Amino acid sequence: MVNEGNIDFTLSRGATGFFRPQDGPLPTTDLRAFRAALYAASRVAGGEVGEVEEQAYPRTFHTATIIRRAGENIVLCHAHHPWIAFAQTRRDWYGEEFLAPLPWAHAFTNAGFVVLTEVFVSSSGSDGS
Prior knowledge:
This protein is of the alpha+beta class. Helix content is 16%, strand content 24%. The chain starts with 30 loop residues before the first helix and ends in a 14-residue tail after the last strand.
């Protein structure tokens, strides 16, 4: 994402997955909490949880799907910080292909996660309802 001078956002330690060994291990996002939030979100969305894939190199995020009549929604959860983002397709890396938060994203904030908004990710105009 390009910072055009409009946003002052500093990435937290571990956000990129790189760290210095002398700084100690990176924090980890509780995968059980993420799964619980997924099930809460799927209930609100009127869908069901599909596949949940734990973070594996080179990704710095866990990937999951919520399946609804309208289709499949990809949910990304950062492995080191409690950040949630949405994407249109499942990939090993993302540039600016994120979606705006879906109407049922509040289920993640209610569970203590931070849902990244257009301030932090580029919107590609999902209806996501």
